[in-house]
Write a structure and sequence with these properties.
By secondary structure, the chain is α+β, with helices and mostly antiparallel strands. It has 3 helices and 7 strands; from the N terminus they run ββββαβββαα. A 7-stranded antiparallel beta sheet has the order 4-3-2-1-7-6-5. A hairpin with a 5-residue loop joins strand 1 and strand 2. The longest helix is centred in the C-terminal third of the chain and has 14 residues.
Length: 134
């Protein structure tokens, strides 16, 4: 069965606290350049962060990102942890997640849409029509 959606749920450490936070990774083929990392704040309510899949892929190996989202291996303590820094006008957060979990998620997204083939899934005419209607 082929799917155009990848979703992965897990607990992450947020801001160094010992209490893990429930998170959800999502990738949809219809928006092939983007991954979304969401954190559950309370039952049924999530805070979403969307960013480039390429940023996540690069951040598995070396520090990546210059803006609101930065991804890097935690080489100071262990290469088994991936660090994701999130920054907005409302605050700053550091997420620590098992690197292997992110690798599994990235591998699943690549099964859905191979890197370098994203443009084949974009409907540029529909995008332009949407912008014009705004």
């Amino acid at each position: 069965m082929h799917t155009d959606l990848v979703e992965q749920h897990q607990f992450v450490t947020l801001n160094g606290f010992g209490t893990p936070v429930f998170s959800r990774w999502t990738y949809v083929a219809g928006d092939p350049y983007v991954v979304t990392l969401a954190f559950r704040t309370q039952r049924g309510e999530w805070i979403d962060w969307s960013f480039a899949r390429d940023l996540l892929i690069e951040g598995l190996e070396v520090p990546a990102g210059l803006g609101d989202v930065r991804v890097r291996p935690d080489l100071a303590f262990t290469d088994e942890i991936l660090v994701i820094e999130l920054e907005s006008p409302d605050g700053y957060a550091i997420v620590e997640i098992r690197r292997r979990d992110v690798e599994k998620f990235v591998d699943a997204t690549c099964q859905v849409v191979a890197p370098g083939t994203e443009t084949e899934l974009l409907d540029i005419d529909a995008f332009i029509a949407q912008i014009i209607e705004v």
